Amino acid sequence: MKGLVFTELFRHVEALHGANMVDDIIEAAQLPHNGGYTSIGSYPFQEAVALLVALTQATGKSLPDTLDGFGTHCFKRWVNYAPHFFTQQRGLFDILEGIDDFHETEVRKLYPDAELPSFRSEQRTARRLILGYYSCKPLSALAVGVIKGAAAHVNQPVHMECEPAANERGAYTRITITLLDS
Ligand code: HEM
């Protein structure tokens, strides 16, 4: 996992709970290198799991809720890399249907060895988009949080539901995104 995700997690935790909490979770996670991450470095996913578990233990919040909030934080930060891609004119569904291309072109330029997820559009109507989320990591709650951030950014409130699914590519998560009346 890219160091960027870890540095954003620390930024998010500091904003919500203060700098001491960042130190506390780094200590509790018993990391091999005392929590020093560079954004372009790559680190074992297990370290992110250890930090997230330490965070849930410290806050009492569930892991999905924690990932959801962190995902929204990530979107608010990541949107600054490419504000022209996330415009109200494009609309949420076009943005989400283009996210694989965005990850594979723009994000790849910055992080050639990133392990990026894939989002496959399964069904789209004016009000509903069904996206398949494929990843080697169980981070659908993070994806939901990132999508919520994108929805708020383009001013299109949504309701989302996740369900486990499988096809010829293996297991994945089906995310149903429904636009609410704004
Ligand atoms: C609606 C927009 C986006 C969605 C839904 C999304 C979703 C995700 C998710 C769920 C992950 C976690 C990795 C996984 O699931 O395997 C991820 C990773 C990542 N995304 Fe995105 N993302 C979006 C936009 C962006 C933008 C704008 C950037 C610009 C920098 C970005 C850069 C990254 C990077 C660097 C990673 C880490 C990959 C790694 O750890 O190897 N994403 N994204």
Give an overview of the whole structure.
This protein has 182 residues and is an alpha+beta fold. It folds into two domains: 59 residues; 97 residues, H-NOX domain (Alpha-Beta Complex), CATH 3.90.1520. Helices cover 48% and strands 19% of the residues. The protein contains seven helices and four strands. The chain has a four-stranded antiparallel sheet. α2 crosses α3 and α4 packs across α7. The chain starts with a helix and ends with a strand. The mean pLDDT is 96. The structure holds protoporphyrin IX containing FE.
Give a topology summary.
Elements: H1 3-17, H2 19-28, H3 45-59, H4 63-78, H5 92-97, H6 99-110, E1 118-124, E2 128-134, H7 140-153, E3 158-167, E4 170-179
Helix pairs in contact: 1-2, 1-4, 2-3, 4-7
The structure holds protoporphyrin IX containing FE.
Protoporphyrin IX containing FE binds next to α1, α6 and α7.
CATH class of the largest domain: Alpha Beta
Number of strands: 4
Rounded mean pLDDT is 96
Name every ligand kind in the structure: protoporphyrin IX containing FE
Largest sheet: 4 strands, antiparallel
Structural class: alpha+beta
Unreliably modeled segments: none
* CATH architectural type of the largest domain: Alpha-Beta Complex
Distance between the termini: 36 Å
The arrangement of helices and strands along the chain is HHHHHHEEHEE
Domain unit count? 2
